[in-house]
Amino acid sequence: MMMTSVTYDHQNTVELSIGGMTGACCADQVQRKLNKLEGVTATVDLATEKAKVTFPEGLDPHQLIAQVEETGYTAALAASTSTATATSSEYGDDRSH
What we know:
The chain is of the alpha+beta class. The protein has helices at 24-35, 61-70, and strands spanning 11-19, 41-45, 50-56, 74-77.
């Protein structure tokens, strides 16, 4: 039987905040659930309640959140990985002078 390996050329990384974990068993459960998604590599840190997740282009980060929530925990994109950033011009604050 020949085994093949799939390589994903374009990978994205996101950090998730995970809520509701009380011990190492919980972190392991979340990590295993995330790693079941094709092309996903996740590492969950119980102490920081964060998951670092590498996933292939085309996979929506909200699918990662849904995967965690199916396990019974809460998840959200960590503040440091949020793609929504407000610029000063959006608020009429011109600080360019």
